[in-house]
Amino acid sequence: MSDTVYEKSSEIPENQIVSPQSPLDKILQFxxxxxxxxxxxxxxxxxxxxxxxxxxxxxxxASFLILKNYYLWAVLAIVISGLLDCLDGDLARSRGIASDxxxxxxxxxxxxxxxxxxxxLILGNPRDNLVVGLIALLGTTMVPYIRAKSESLGRSSIAxxxxxxxxxxxxxxxxxxxxxxxxxxxxxVISNVAAIHRFAHALNPGNE
Length: 208
Prior knowledge:
CATH class: Mainly Alpha
Strand content: under 5%
Distance between the termini: 37 Å
Mean pLDDT: 86
Number of strands: 0
CATH topology: Four Helix Bundle (Hemerythrin (Met), subunit A)
Order of helices and strands: HHHHHHH
Radius of gyration: 17 Å
Low-confidence stretches: 1-20
Helix content: over 70%
CATH architecture: Up-down Bundle
């Protein structure tokens, strides 16, 4: 896809809601901003290219490696993908070409990465992992959906314990230890708790 998806945005309205970040997100962004600044004049590296590369590495490659039980290599792919997932937006902002369209592309492809990784974890042992894996998949889908829907309605959002960064850390720990079923239980619990937390916060009349 052409990099024209990252067109310059118009001035940000004063009442635009700024999405909160978890501490892990802030730590990671500290490094990706520095990388983005180093790449600002490297024209052949584009935000769109980084976004799609993140999907290929973190979604398709990592899932394939999980299915083949190459967990250590899968972890490496997930870490690289996570770094690229932050870098694309930071590079677009550094170049002054960030836009809602670019943000949309990034968010949609993130959902595909989440789906592919959790599906691979389920398919590794579907007899034991199917039910808890589907609950984990539901939670990881609802967390960003509730946030996006709340903000589209003009309600404030809130950082939660089940942020994507936290879920990624859990996946890495689960793969490194080979404890896939406990990993899926942890993902199911933390993601659905986070979804309920965000939903309750959004329903609070004070956040209208």
